[in-house]
Amino acid sequence: MIGDRKRDDNKSGYRNISIKKTRTGATRYLIYVGYHGEKHTATRTNLADALVAREKIRSKYWPDYAEYREQKPLNGEGSK
């Protein structure tokens, strides 16, 4: 199904997390979760913190996300 797989240009290997470089060259992980037209974002300095923040955002703003993914599993989540 469209939208259920990781994008080809995904560098982090995880859905809803992208890698950005600052002007100073530091790496930042941008978390972006959209649900019912609302955008929820956060930025972290390492991937482990970004994964935790993504799950917190999902559980706060999209409490039934786990049930949604059981119905529509992702192919290759974190398989990078």
Structure description:
With 80 residues, the protein is an alpha+beta fold. The protein has a domain at 17-71. The protein has helices at 47-61, 65-71; strands at 17-21, 27-35, 38-44. Strands 1-2-3 form a 3-stranded antiparallel sheet, covered by helices on one side. Strand 2 (27-35) and strand 3 (38-44) form a beta hairpin. It is globular and about 40 Å long. The model has no long low-confidence stretch (mean pLDDT 81). It comes from Lactobacillus selangorensis. This is AP2-like integrase N-terminal domain-containing protein.
Entry keywords:
80 residues; 26% strand; single chain; AP2-like integrase N-terminal domain-containing protein; 3 strands; alpha+beta; three-stranded antiparallel beta sheet
End-to-end Cα distance: 21 Å
What gross morphology would you assign? globular
Q: Major β-sheet, in short?
A: 3 strands, antiparallel
Spans of at least 5 consecutive residues with low confidence? none
Helix content: 25-40%
Counted by DSSP, the helix tally is 2
Radius of gyration of CA atoms, rounded to a whole number: 13 Å
Helix and strand run: EEEHH
Strand portion: 25-35%
Structural class: alpha+beta
